[in-house]
Amino acid sequence: MFVRQGPRSIYCAPYATAAFLGLIGQSLGRKEILRAFGARRANWPGASRMEIARVAGAACPGLRTSWLHLHASSGTDLFGRLAQVWEGRPLLATANCLLLRHEVTDWHTFVILAVAHDAVRIVDPLFRPPADGDLGNMELRLFDGRAQTSNQSSRLAWAVDFGQPICLMRWSIDVAPDGRSPN
User: Fold this and answer.
1) What is the DSSP secondary-structure string of the chain?
2) How much is the pTM?
3) In degrees, to the nearest 5, what angle opens at C-alpha 113 toward C-alphas 110 and 119?
4) 138 φ, ψ to 5°?
């Protein structure tokens, strides 16, 4: 499930969570995910990692989550650390990101789909939906030591701020004794 976020929206956590849940077989539409986060009330402040985990767990019975905090000093360091913890399945991630055109930082939520030594494939609610047959819609690449979106000229391009950790939602789904997922 992909729900696109507007550039002035603070709904990246709900929309990225919806994308993550869709990848693990639990589909929630725009209204459902916003309701689950309580994001339709006036002055909604955004979502914490605890709220993200709560909503994901409520939508997917048996889902267990924990947050891993990765500290990195450069894009190369970050890609190496991601490669060390990568298990080959989607990871919901939060990071303090620098919006390059406006030179402002804020927390952002996205889904990591694949990790390589020179790129990290993601689905990001800020950008256009993925092309047909593709799960991701953006890559993080190395530019001048930074890990940033591969669309440098976009008004929405961002880079990871290494002054804060990137946080990854590690997860597992409990399996019933008969080997079936409780979904």
Assistant:
1) ---PPPTT---HHHHHHHHHHHHTT----HHHHHHHHTTTSTT-----HHHHHHHHHHHSTTEEEEEEEE--SSHHHHHHHHHHH--SS-EEEEEEEEETTTTEEEEEEEEEEEE-SSEEEEE-TTSPPPPTT-S-SEEEEEETTEEEES-TTSTT-EEE-TTS-EEEEEEEE---TTS----
2) 0.89
3) 95
4) -165, 160
pLDDT tens digits along 42-77: 778 889 999 999 999 999 999 999 999 999 999 999
Looking at residue 46, its pLDDT comes to: 85
The letter for the amino acid at 1 is M
Q: Counting every residue, how long is the chain? A: 183
What domains are defined for the chain?
12-173 (3.90.70.10)
